[in-house]
Amino acid sequence: MGHEIQLNGGEITILKAIGVSGAAMGGKFLLDRIEEVEAGEFIDTLDGLLAMGYLLATKVNIKTLEDVERTSFRVNPSYAHDLKDALDPSRRREAQKQRRRRRG
Fold first, then answer.
1. Which pTM was predicted?
2. What was the pLDDT predicted at 83?
3. How far lies 99's CA from each of 34, 85, 89, 90, in Å?
């Protein structure tokens, strides 16, 4: 059974911008997609996603926006299914309802 992942608004914004398909996205494109977020908050959120293992990056230390621009990011395929459920909670509820119906 999968893990129940709880995400905050900033994490959801970043993950939706990158996408959970597993395709890599350049940091420059990611910055273009993310608007109205303070640089420090963005980097802290990105660092948190990397520390939890939800994201994979081509660069280890990401401390500035220049570091972000020179890095490629993608969702860790090990967490992709659970992250899809976390991004769309109604999907998780639907799956639970279907499981209940099959048993009864």
1. 0.82
2. 93
3. 36, 15, 16, 14
Residue that is written with structure tokens 């999968």 in the block: 2
pLDDT-derived band at 102 (thresholds 50, 70, 90) equals low
- Kindly list the structural domains of the chain, giving each domain's residue range(s) and its CATH number in brackets, ordered by start: 9-103 (1.10.10.10)
- Helical ranges in 1-104 per DSSP H: 9-18, 27-33, 39-52, 65-69, 80-87, 89-103
- Token reading at 82: 């659970």
List Cβ neighbours of 46 (8 Å cut-off, separation of 6 or more).
14, 55, 62, 68, 73
CB 6 within 8 A of CB 86: yes
Half-sphere exposure of 45 (CA within 13 A, CB side): 16
Tell me how far apart the alpha carbons of residues 93 and 96 are, in angstroms, rounded to a whole number: 5
Mean pLDDT across the stretch 48-63? 95
C-alpha dihedral sign at 30, 57, 42, 78: positive
